[in-house]
Structure prediction request, 449 residues.
Amino acid sequence: MYEGFLALGIAAGGQLTTTDEVENFPGFKMIQGGKLMDQMREQSEACGTEIISQTVAKVDLKAKPFKYWLHPMGDDETIEEEEHTADALIIATGAKARRLDLPGEDKFWGNGVSACAVCDGSLPMFREQPLVVIGGGDSAVEEALYLTKKAKKVTVLVRRDKLRASRTNARRLTTHPKIDIRYNTSAVEIKGEEKKNGLMTQLVIKNNVTKEEQTIEAKGLFYAVGHDPATALFKDQLEMDEDGYLITDPGRCTTSIEGVFAAGDVQDKRYRQAITSAGSGCIAALEAEKWLADQDDSITNELEVENQAEKSQTNGVVPEYRSNPLL
Amino acid sequence: MADIKHPSSLSDLQALFASTTYVAVDFYADWCGPCKQIAPYYANLAKQHGVDGTLAFAKVNVDNAQDIAAAYRVQAMPTFMFFKEGKQVAVNGNKMIQGADVKSLGAAAEKLGGLAKKKAGL
Prediction:
């Protein structure tokens, strides 16, 4: 298993390593996302998985066996010469929180701007400070409420005129005394100290209806504006939807290429839960195992010769099995 | 060859500065994924380049040693800083390294290792 070395800037273990508490994974009343991933890794290793902390740089799925190449650890520009091959492939590269590419974003990234309130929100620099969250969905609500524990005030910028979050979540947000929601509002520019490693101090915001711009005090800016699946590696090789998610056969995790399976958020933009990903991971593993067994000629089945249906010679004649086809 | 030091307060760290010429510090947190990923690499650098009394590799848990984190204004995890005789110094032009940047960290450790070996007369 290639866990990657900070592939796309996320530690191995993916989004769960930046999730504070998981409350809907069966068997755990509550568990830290990072801890859950540590335990999954341990379990996987105990089952004999060889885990390699390198990121896959390139794949070639045109012919079997599939070919792939790696980045040296911590170096995403170089590609190793060594060619590796695989008979079957399970893709579980996940998804990553989106950025907005605002002016000032790069300069103040890590100095006030973050895509993860739960990871960075408790840093001393944010205590008792005014903070801003951008987004109107459930994750924006979660992030904003999390930040209220330490912040002085949290302003939530919602692009449209209403929240996209569930009704319960929306109510939690609108009734919170420390939260100020600005509808029809977008961020325009991040401002801050000019010196090197200077901190963010202000955010320019704009009302999308009146076009009026305003500068507000903000020591922290947290994005909660959706996710991008990590599928650049498979572009033009596997079928994807308009958002770049891999298209799989529902309930089977098979992709447009036989022998390539996909599991987790990389093929799921709807549920995106730790448990649904674990579930599709299990499906992909079982399907891959079955597929590999089917490819292996040395595992012969006595019935195999017999279970072929006779091709109907004329249209309309239902083919007949001489024995039950094996599932 | 030297073990990683774990100063748990500002005075601990100052004691380390007093006893060791060069000190590299890894500011980390238990819940930080990138910190975890680079930890084995950092441990390896310590083993490879550490020289008792001359170059120490330390790890500071920012949640447990909040006085250290505040004193050095740590803003991201992991952050790596370098010190000579207790004063923060830039290595290879970097005042600090933010993030699990293997390349820069490796180069910085090598540079410090070279300086330390020269100083220790190895």
